[in-house]
Amino acid sequence: MGHVPNVTRADAVAAARNPLAFIAERWTPGPRTVQRAALAALVMSVVIVVTGGAVRLTGSGLGCPTWPKCTADSLTATSAMGFHGAIEFGNRMLTYVLCAAVGWAIIAARSEKPYRRSLTRLGWAQFWVVMGNAILGGVVVLVGLNPYTVAAHFLLSSALIAVATVMWQRTREGDGPPKPLVGKSVQQLVWFLVAASVLLIAVGTVVTGSGPHAGDSSEVERMPLDWETISKLHAVLAWIVVTLTFALWFVLKAVDAPKGPLDRTRELFLVLLAQGVIGYVQYFTNLPEALVGLHMLGSGLVWIAVLRVLLSLRERPETAEAELPGLAAEATVATRA
Fold this sequence. Notes:
This protein has helices spanning about 10-15, 20-25, 30-55, 80-110, 115-140, 145-170, 185-210, 225-255, 260-285, 290-310, 320-335, and strands at about 180, 315. By secondary structure, it is mostly helical.
């Protein structure tokens, strides 16, 4: 067992004043640790979307009828509330797991040497999105699952996935200025793809808001729109995204693009095909809950794949400052030799 240093009064004061700086002074995580921390935050941002969908699909949206308590008299779900109360309260508890994952990502980013302010800011951005979405989730309950607030709740979750994806990518890059790997015309095509994907996700929330899965067994307000028409619009947008992806792959091949953008585009195309199959099967089988939940998972994976395509269009080398510690270490070894 290693020696455990004594914690002085000065250490305790320093930890209380700035715990992140205190940890960073005493711990230097390796690059792989930072990458895993960022990936854990990304995985949890997808998991919370899927479990939120499970709450809606099981009709447990008002299993805890108030917020921030579960009931007016209890902070937690009670046995009398049954299955729906347990599902809704369990999803609320997963928010703490998500916070822990984001917190680990922030600590790992803050402790990495050399210090990368941009990476730490991405971690904090996730934290504030989580806090905002937790409050919005409470509003969703308080207004009786109003479909517009439910849609906003999902869109904010998609924003969280976006920030988490960017942070995960940035952990595997340097802090140097980005260098484009493709021309402007290809970049513009990808931005069209991103815009179409955003529109696809937004219309997907309208499909949900006007569809049969209201989120609770009680009478819940729905968006006053024809579900069949909105579903067909959603399908058209999905085909536009698929077509843009297919076109992008051919363009990248034609311009002899690097392997990274080609691989990410191929991955996106495969995810889109799987998501499309699930979407059509659920449509023609009257929206079984299991397939709807799988489609929600697919939505998060499609969004991540789209963002990875966008981020693959450039590379960011290490900065001169980041290279200095390594050069100094090599010089020291050479001197000793």
